[in-house]
Amino acid sequence: MRYVPSPAESTKPRVAYFAGSMKPGHDGVTRVLYRLIDALVAEGIPNVFYSPIVPSPGGRSTEMVEVPSLTIPMYKDYRFAIPGQRHFESHLVSFAPDLIHINSPCPLGHAAVQFGLAHGVPVVATYHTHFPSYARYYNVRPLTFLGWNYMRRLYNNCQRVYVPSEPILRELAGKGMNTLKYLPHGVDTQAFHPHFRSRVWKDMVGIGRKAALLFVGRLVWEKDLATLAEAYALLAAKRDDAAFVIVGDGPIRDELRQMMPDAKFLGYRSGEELATVYASSDLFVFPSTTETFGNVTLEAMASGLTPVCVREGGASGVVQDGITGLLARPRDAADLAAKIEMLLDNPGMRSALADRALRFARLQTWNRIFGDLFEDYDEVLREFRHIHPLRQRKVA
Predict the structure, then answer these.
(1) For residue 158, what is the domain's CATH number?
(2) Helix axes 347-361, 295-302, angle to 10 degrees
(3) pTM value?
(4) Helix axis angle, 225-236 relative to 333-345, nearest 10°?
(5) What is the pLDDT of residues 167-191, one digit of tens each?
(6) Are residues 158 and 289 in the same domain?
(7) Which residues span the domain enclosing 106?
(8) Are residues 43 and 139 in the same domain?
(9) ∠18-5-109 over CA atoms, to 5°?
(10) Is residue 344 domain-shared with residue 273, that is, in the same domain?
(11) Element housing 144 (H / E)
(12) Residue 22: which H helix or E strand, with range?
């Protein structure tokens, strides 16, 4: 279904969104949310966003409300919303939402669900972040059980939970979550396109004629970057015709530089600069097992790259092994390195996979995906009014 703006005179649901951050370009989630804002404006849907991190007033394209928060010691770029409804309740009552949409299971998302339950407002969620899987990376494995219990209670109180990849949807269903719906993410195929390829980019970053093995993402252990560093060491010991290029920033950047001394760390990149990095590289290498989708994988495919990902997590739902890319065993540096070598040594295979990856990416339009989302909003509201006929549609 193609997303087409509705007539201005038609009635639109009023939707309140809750997110962990609204800092532009902060991470994959915020990039999705800003695409969503564009679609909300085009569709004429009244909306407001609540978050502990919002841009300055001049940088907002819709109404945003900053809630009180505390700094997270390990992740100073993120903030922890102070629990409770009192920090947004009066404003939300004034907005009078028909629907609440949470984008994080953090305390702010929990408070929004509780508000919905108390006021008779249906709540939907997007499962952006696979928090229970993070426990293994920080030596707190007992929290995995507690994390799943919390997530199950939270999301089963939502009328719908949108899950962007089928492997994650199956995992959540196996954990007892019962309001799930598959809704993938999209990609802007004009912003990420092979025509951004630069003949001089490799010289500019200092890798000359070597093949560029690109990683893009937050530099945090839960993206399985220890596996990436091990694969780097295995390849560096065998050949000198490839170079790793790391785009992104995060708390483990200095440690990772020590583990990958000859890799090129470019820091955070966005816009046309990021598009040029993608299109000018040769392979996209993404070992993360904790993604719910992996927007960067789809961006790389739209840029003409062959992805090498792993058979666990959201990226395995985007990449078809042997058709649009290759999938290695999760947390297996030797297998990841072997898959990279296979493609380096077989340019014809790499080109065929890249062509099919590009064709796949060009079908994943945001128009279609947000059109499906907005249609489902209407379905949720119809279902909720049928189940709760005596409840007011708007907060009073």
Answers:
(1) 3.40.50.2000
(2) 110
(3) 0.86
(4) 50
(5) 999 999 999 999 999 999 999 999 9
(6) no
(7) 15-186+365-387
(8) yes
(9) 10
(10) yes
(11) helix 142-155
(12) none
